[in-house]
Model the fold of this input.
Amino acid sequence: MKKYVKVVGTSMLALGLLVTPVSANDLTTPNNPSVQAFDNKIVKRIDVSKIYDHISHLAEEIGPRVAGTEGEWAAVQYIADQYRQLGLEVSIQEFQFQRGSTTITSHNVIATKKAHKNHDTGQIIYVGSHHDSVPGSPGASDNASGVGVNLELARVLSNMQTDTEIRFLTFGGEEFGLRGSRHYVSTLSEEELDRSVGMFNFDMVGSANAGDMIMFTVDGERNTITNLAASSSLRVFEPLTYGRVGRSDHQPFHDAGIASAAFSYAPLEPEYHQPTDTIEKLSMEKLENMAYVVGSAVYQIARKDTPALENARVAPQPVEPPFENRPL
Done:
C-alpha cells in the first residue's frame, strides 16, 4: 500500500495542498483567540485532575510496577480497564524476556480507536508510554505521569471523529531495555508498518523539579512528530525545542522507520529512579501543558479534514523547531 502522509517532514500534504513550513516568528502569537480556536476542541476537554487520579492510583495505590511482578500486572489491568470504559478496542499482549537466568513475563496494553469508516486515510499513529517502574520506586514521574497523560488523551479523543487510526499503547519492561516496545514493533505486519506515520512517546512528563519541556528524536533530526508538536506548542503553550536522545520507547519505532519522538522535561529531576519519585513532587501545570501540546498535535494529524477548516486562518501552520543540545 502506498503511504499517504497527511503531515510529513519539512513540508505538509493536506487535502492535496502543499504547505511550506514557517518559523515561529512568522506565526500569530499563541494567545490570539483565532489561533487557539482550532485547539479548543482538545484543550478545553483536558481535565488535569483525571491525569492526577491515574497517577495516584498507579504510584500510590499500586506502587512499584517492576516488569513481571504483581505490581505491574495490577497496573496492566487498571490501564486496560480504563481504555475499555472509553469504548476502545483493547488487548493485552504478553511477552517474555531473559534477565540472567530468569525468564520474565511482562505485558503491553493496546487500545485502538478506529478511523471514521467513511473518512479513513489508512494511516496509523501511536501514543505510547511505559507503565513499569524501577525496583523500589513508586515511579510517579517515571512513568505513571506518562501513562496518566496517555489515558487522558485517550478519553478526550475517544469520541471525536478522526480519519486516522490511533493506537494508545502502554509498555512493560521499558526499564529493562525497552523490552515491551521492541516486542510490540516486532509484531507489526508489513502492511501495518506501511500505514504507520508517527509515534508520540511520553516519558517523565510531570516533575516539578525537572527542566523545561522538550522533545527528543533518536537521530537528532526533525520529523513529522516534532513538526506537529512544534506547531501545537506555539499555539497552546510556548515554542518548543527538540534534542537527540534514544533510550525510551520511541527508539524501536524509529528503528522500524516510523517517525517518532519522546516528550519529556529536561534536565531530569534528582528523584529519577529513586524511592523519592513520589506524587508530591509532580506539577499539575507541567502535566496539563504536556497534554495540551501533544493532544493538539495528535488532533491536528488525526482529525477528519474539511476543506473549509484547512483554508481557514485558524488552521495550524507547520513549524520547524530549533535543535537544543540539552541532556535528558
